Amino acid sequence: MAQNYIKIGRTTNALFLYICEVMEVNYSEAAYLQLVQDIFHRFPSVQKDGFTSGAYKPGLERMRAFEDALGNPSRKFRSVHVAGTNGKGSVANMLASACASCGLKTGLFTSPHLIDFRERMCVNGELIPKEYVFTFLTQWMNWITAHGLSFFEITTGLCFSWFAAQKVDVAIIETGLGGRLDSTNILEQPELTVVTSIGLDHCALLGHTLPEIAAEKAGIFKEGVPALVGELQEETASVFGEIAWMFCPLTFADRVKPSLWASHAQMLRQMDLQAKVQEKNLRTVLAAVDILREQDAFAPLRNNAAVMDGIIHTARNMHFHGRWERLSTQPYVIADIGHNAHALQHNFHQLEEMVAGGSYSSLIVVYGIMADKDLDAILPLMPEDATYIFTAPDTPRALPADEILRRFNAFRAPQTPRAYAFTSVRLAVQMAVQLAQNLSTQLSRSASAETPAPPLIYIGGSTFVVAEALPLFK
Description:
Elements: E1 4-5, H1 14-22, E2 24-25, H2 29-42, H3 46-49, H4 61-69, E3 78-83, H5 88-101, E4 106-109, E5 121-123, E6 126-127, H6 130-147, H7 151-166, E7 170-174, E8 192-195, H8 203-206, H9 210-217, E9 227-229, H10 237-244, E10 250-252, H11 264-270, H12 278-292, H13 304-312, H14 314-318, E11 325-329, E12 332-336, H15 341-356, E13 363-367, H16 375-378, E14 387-391, H17 401-412, E15 418-422, H18 425-446, E16 456-460, H19 463-469
Parallel strand pairs: 3-7, 3-8, 4-7, 8-9, 9-10, 12-16, 13-14, 13-16, 14-15
Antiparallel strand pairs: 1-2, 4-5, 5-6, 11-12
């Protein structure tokens, strides 16, 4: 590996002080890990710091300057731009898997990551090489520091640069937040823009009403570029219509019948993404496929069998984690990163149906939430007949577990719910597993000849909770 010359300003981090003295360093696994760790802690990120002024920097001036310095990589590949309150990660991954399955060299940019920083960017399911990350960051560190980029702006530039170098046929690009002022909105001429859903989340930044939030999401619409919206909602339809009617064709996915819709029930049964809300996301993806394959560049998407196979195996092909993911069968454990009321309403309802249907004897919920989320809107959605184990992941953004328990008990009074609080995700998961095993033992002793239904464990409420739980089941 060729030596990489590092030019950076002074920082209190010991690693960077050392690098400043040595100035030349060869790539190694240790050097890569130290550099990525420093970038993540040195530059504000929403995942780590929340939506602070340093982590969330609305506006495209810095990103456009970075893009120009990099040689405008976003102009060197075709793209599909995806925004939305919920479902955008699933839609982006399904569409990328379908494209890759049809033989298109497909890039995918999503956020946040759960375990490995490189989860944010892949080509045909393969993560960006560590060597490329290392070389890019060392080469551009001085520029990044001088211009005060956020962590998301850095990763966007890194991703676009890599996709251009890889000469991808298409890149599926998920927005970080909103759309109009999101760093990814430097894409000048995507082939398609998609807005999956509109819900009340990040209201302080995007608006306190659905129409205000819809207007921010629709900011990714581009002149002459087809726009696809996942669902027609009475409160937002006129907003999308007013923004789109002058300069781009608009389609609502739930108002059309995609060409592969006759096979949707079969696909849903076989898909490795099993949340019930995926039916809505699937319709959006199939509508997107229909729009894209009218273009000659996307002729491979006319292979229906390959499209279906790609969608069915999205989680496997894209290494897509934390979306109604089964972590264990003994005990049965499901994890999902849905974290706002709009997403959790669907998740909690599906959990209740699974227990009511007799497949599971009881429900144990391991739950944590960030302090900036609307817990008051989520508490009424929580299943009444469940055991709760509240926890706090290892981040300053987390709401303390005992505070969640206090507010939960106050909301449920005068009932006496089965609820506990643990200071770490590891302890909370261990408690849930032990409780499930104890319940299974009790049921086995009291059951007749039939095998009793097992308890069901759900882990969620926050990306951070799921991220810390995943390694416990590997």
